[in-house]
Amino acid sequence: MITAPIRSGRLAASRWVLVLALVYFASAKLGLALAFATPSVTAVWPPTGIALAALVLGGRGLWPGVLLGAFLANVTTDVPVYTAAGIAVGNTLEALVGASLLDRVGFRPALPRLRDIFALVVLAAVLSTAVSATIGVASLSVGDSLSEGALSTWRVWWLGDMGGDLLVASLIFVLVTHWPYRDLPGSAAEALVLMLAFVGIGLVVFTHDVPAAYLTFPIIVWAALRFLQPGASVAAVVLATVAVTFTANESGPFVRPSEDDSLLLAQSFSAIVGLTGLILATVTSQRRRAERRAQHLAHDLQAELLPPQLPEIPQFEAAGWYRASMQGQEAGGDFYDVFKASPGRWVAVIGDVCGKGPEAASLTALARHTLRAVGRQATGPSDALRALNEAILEQRSDHPATAHGVHSR
Asked: What is the pLDDT of residue 144?
């Protein structure tokens, strides 16, 4: 009765491990194609971001997929088997350490808060990547596979992995958690225009040696403001793709005598632009959520200041309709009410409190409930308004209010 679900769960987990291993292997080969000074060390390493995102979103139990994919990617190069195994262990520990550190601080993959972005940068991109770089360089040294100095190799390894976390991991996080992207201000047509403009500017920037990389910043701001975190992360990866492709072919403003340094500059620029866009997108998203909460609160507060329904008055038909004069996030000071003062006597009132917001709402509530209290003893509208005026002066002498009409019948 229990073994069948367990076996089914294990089979599904094994499939995901295999999928992760294959994706890791394919992206690793893509990154190793851009290795120059040391064949096993590249300034562009997408698998780091893939592994981190997989372990954060799918659980740390997927670590065998990282280990298998990393081992297969490195054992098929010119390094000894034990060196490939050491590199694979370092890559796996890197992903595990990064996922564990993020879990400890309550990281949210949707990146809805600035603290989530800072955690991704500091704990994953900066700290956890040092694990893989250190173990990897040590493994290459043991296998006598270092083509350059250990410190230079470590720097390239560390910065390459850092770019993988900042660009690839953030992209996977927001694309998975924000689906189906219904809350984005921009439209599909605008997204197409944005992407074409971004690619066009990228081609202009990276087909000339003139330092004009700053032209990409208005586009990343556009993407962040109109398409929030998904737009900013996609734009950053598109920029990185264009930048790395042209820089690897010795074109653009980041070309240097060292191929690794050129790629590091191109990827670092893309990561910084993407990080800037993510921060702007997160701040914009937080503001939008705050505005929606304020609107809901204002709507609920305004509803409490009006009668839910008008009473039935014999031989008289009463109806009310309220529409705010301004669409905003604050409750207004306008109100109306109809209530029974005594047998055969009814009171109808329309009032207006100057201003908007909590103070106006509190005074509106005071006026409405005071009128209900004094209206039952008042002999007419004048007496009711006089009593209301005295009550308001006692409670809130600094806030004016006007009763447009008090009628009794």
From this structure: 82
CA distances to 5, 209, 271, 286, 316 from 250, in Å: 55, 10, 20, 41, 86
Tokens of 13: 């987990």
Task: With a cut of 70, list the residues of the chain below it in pLDDT.
Answer: 1-11, 301, 304, 324-333, 344, 355, 357-359, 378-379, 395-409
**How many Cβ atoms sit within 10 Å of the Cβ of residue 247?**
26
Residues with Cβ within 8 Å of 146's Cβ and at least 6 positions away in sequence, in order, are: 38, 137, 140, 153
* Residue 306 CB contacts under 8 Å (≥ 6 apart), including other chains: 320, 322, 335, 336, 337
Over residues 69-96, the pLDDT tens digits come to 999 999 998 889 999 999 999 999 999 9
* CA-based nearest residue to 403, from 388, 318, 394, 390: 388
CB under 8 Å to 233, separation ≥6 — which residues? 167, 170, 171, 173, 174, 175, 274, 277, 278
Other beta carbons within 10 angstroms of residue 296's beta carbon come to: 11
Q: What is the pLDDT of residues 205-226, one digit of tens each?
A: 988 877 888 889 999 999 999 9
